[in-house]
Design brief:
Elements (H helix, E strand, L loop, with lengths): L2 E6 L4 H12 L4 E7 L4 H11 L3 E4 L5 H5 L4 E4 H9 L6 E4 L7 H9 L3 E4 L2 H18 L3 E3 L2 H9 L8 E8 L15 H4 L9 H9 L1 H14 L6 E5 L5 E7 L4 E5 L5 H9 L22 E2 L6 H12 L3 H17 L8 H10 L9 H22 L5
Parallel strand pairs: 1-2, 1-5, 2-3, 3-4, 5-6, 6-7, 8-9
Antiparallel strand pairs: 8-10, 9-12, 10-11
The structure holds NADP nicotinamide-adenine-dinucleotide phosphate.
């Protein structure tokens, strides 16, 4: 069956991997619509190659509707919402960044669409609402993040009651074996040892906050408690996830360090591809190491675990604060080694609230971003 796909965040790093899959299987997938935000050149290239019917951009661009009259152009957050609920689409793929993905994901699920989701912040902050909508309207939530897709795949046909621990791996980032001090440059932070990803998540990985968000993401997706989700440092990034069963078995999933693999498998779900279009490879050719995490070395992973246990609006605050702090780091306003203390300070400054509504999530996102920017301005040059 030909599936109509809506791709949110098509111009990003994950978006490109998803397009690589759609391009290879024109009999199976059709790009009905996509969103870009600032990157108009890439949006135009996607229009030319895939001839979609709907395109969402941040703001209107007068020339584009004239150049492509058969396409409906929409703009801003309303445009994203419209795209998420298009009646002709079957699957919405969300590769959006940060909290911008929450409302579109919720909208898609409330229209009964299947949601393939890489956008971890939406799950971390509003996972309970996404799960509820999935249950109520029948659309599935299929993870695209490599660790969660690994767990999702390994769990097929299994009962969670058999599982003692869920395991996700972390490369350890560029500073696994190096002390983090004032000498670290932005270029070094952006040199991820194994993955090639967008700038935001690359900084998040260097801080290990990304792995903390993934622990919460796994809690949401699999209804599993925080203390039963284990993280191992695995510098080769070949094993993405594992199940440790109560009976003493370990089931591990290996695949190359390439987001096209989880994109391929999540789009094909529930089928398995009959070929490996991005190359087959043999993981036994590598020696694989697994190390315990040193939580003193990576305090933000400990912070995320604390936030997971507290729950309420704090997971939203953690996402929002991290987004702002990383943006400010990328702008050159904060030194990398100052980020862990700053993020902890900003998260602890926010009062938690439990028994939350969707509205609480949106308010906490906005408020904590404003407060974070104020605090960063207050610290000024001390953060550089
Ligand atoms: N990169 C990876 O390998 C990877 C792996 C697993 C999970 N993830 C998760 O996947 C998500 C996307 O990551 P990425 O690395 O692909 O990010 P990215 O390269 O920065 O791409 C983000 C996409 O979202 C769009 N966008 C940015 N801000 C937006 C906003 N406020 N409203 C609407 N659209 C917006 C961008 O549009 P423009 O470029 O046109 O401005 C772009 O299409 C993140 O949640 C990340 O944690 C990423």
């Amino acid at each position: 069956m030909l599936k109509n796909i809506v791709l949110l965040g098509a111009t990003g790093s994950v978006g490109s991997s998803v397009l690589d899959v759609i391009r290879l299987y024109p009999q199976r997938f059709r790009l009905l619509g996509f969103s870009a935000w600032f990157n108009i050149d890439k949006a135009v290239a996607i229009i030319k190659e895939f001839s979609p019917f709907f395109v969402v951009l941040k703001e209107s661009h007068e020339s584009l509707p004239l150049l492509y009259p058969s396409i409906t152009f929409l703009y801003g957050e309303e445009g994203l919402k419209y795209l998420a609920e298009l009646s002709d689409s079957h699957t919405v793929v969300s590769a959006l960044l940060g909290m911008s993905g929450f409302i579109p994901a919720l909208t898609a699920l409330r229209k009964g669409k299947d949601l393939v989701i890489a956008n971890k912040e939406a799950l971390v902050a509003g996972g309970a609402f996404l799960k509820e909508a999935s249950k109520k309207y029948g659309g599935m939530i299929i993870p695209l993040d490599s660790e969660h897709l690994a767990l999702f795949d390994l769990l097929r046909g299994k009962d969670l009651k058999e599982i003692k621990e869920l395991v996700i791996t972390a490369s350890g980032g560029p500073f696994l074996n190096r002390e983090v001090d004032s000498s670290i440059t932005k270029e070094e932070v952006l040199q991820h040892p194994t993955w090639n990803m967008g700038a935001n998540i690359t900084v998040g990985s260097a801080l290990m906050i990304n792995k903390g968000l993934e622990v919460i993401e796994a809690m949401r997706l699999f209804d599993f408690p925080e203390d039963k989700i284990k993280v191992y440092i695995h510098p080769q990034s070949i094993i993405h996830g594992a199940l440790h069963t109560k009976g003493g078995h370990w089931h591990l999933l290996a695949s190359p360090v390439d987001m096209r693999y989880p994109a391929l498998h999540s789009l094909f779900y529930p089928d398995y591809p009959e070929e490996a279009p991005f190359g087959d490879y043999n993981p036994t050719k590598k020696s694989l190491e697994f190390l315990e995490v040193d939580y003193k070395q990576f305090p933000l992973l400990a912070l995320a675990r604390h936030v997971a246990r507290e729950d309420g609006v704090l997971p939203t605050v953690l996402c929002a604060v991290t987004e702002v702090a990383i943006e400010q780091f990328l702008l050159g306003n904060i030194a990398f080694y100052k980020l862990p203390d700053l993020i902890q300070e900003l998260v602890y400054a926010y009062p938690n609230k439990n028994n939350i509504t969707e509205e609480d999530i949106l308010i906490a996102d906005k408020k904590s971003k404003i407060l974070s920017l104020e605090r960063i301005a207050y610290h000024g040059d001390d953060l550089r």
